[in-house]
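We close this part of the discussion by returning to an individual protein. Part of our work consisted of pairing the sequence of a single chain with a tokenised description of its backbone. The amino acid sequence and the backbone structure tokens for this protein are reproduced below.
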Amino acid sequence: MERRQPLLHRIGEAGAKFGTKPPRSKRVRLAIQLGIAVLVFGFLVLTVVDQWAEIQDKGVHFHVLWLIPAFVILPIFYALNAVGWDLILRFLGYKLGAGRAQVAWGQPLLARYVPGSVLYVLGRVLLSERAGVPRRLTVASIVYEQALQATSAIVVAAYFLIVHPDLQGQPLRWGILLLIPLLIVLLHPRVFGPLANRVLRAFGREPLPEVMSLGGVIAVMAFYVLNWGVIAVGIYCVARSVSSIPPSQIFVAGAAQAFGYVAALATLVAPAGLGIRDAAFAWSFKVAAPGESFAVASLIAIVVRGVQTVVEVLYVGIVTALGRREGWSIHTGVIHASPEEEEAAKEEGASLARTSRPAN
């Protein structure tokens, strides 16, 4: 009689297979994405509609020309995120290359909007494998990426949260300062390696092939902190297109975006942080809005989300074209594909599930 695998092993096995097959129906894929979008903006849109009179009183003036620098700066933020991931791979012992890093990081980007973001990870794993990067190492790099981006976001948002007027009188707000050294300690190779391997063994997965040095962790985290400065300028330009926000509030724009990222990552509710991230941004950015109006901040959050979505589509289009020109592209289940492309994605997903099973 065949011995039954432990529960955690079976969970790990199911996790390795889950999400490798996107919905075949284009209508189902579209319905999922539209349904999420409706839920996302419902709260913020209702806030704007309900308080439109207040928004008008606060002096909202649309200046479309401010969107021009935003559309120049924001794609740089995404491109630098791909560079940051490539740096992580280099510290783990693999050199993907600047061009292929842009394709592998950027082409599956829109798959984050599929619930669970499994297809996003899958796309990066498969594309990286074509460049010779082992799948387990790619997954490890993504874990590092999320942890380092979260830590850098906390660094950027820490001072802002401490001085936020809504949190004055709350001594627990100082606790965010403890998270920074704690996360750095957790990412130390002598801590992160054994801890991650213990979790992987519990789920029947193989241990990590490599871990980053402490110097590499700090270097990449510093890089991400600087990149939050890049998006701060882009987000400020978007906000300036809606209302007269003084240049002194650029830091607030970056800190609000960083706080929204942490909030979305902590909740793990909505794909790509939809809704959670926007509401957190609106709450944070209201200190820079005229009259500290949450309604104005909500309107800015909606415009920011719209601009970022357009920028993401443009960025994905560029890197996808680059990948296809080099014969190095993959279907992620978000963009409509032909039946042949869908079948190819299905076969690649099945291959990933087979090869990621634990050794006997």
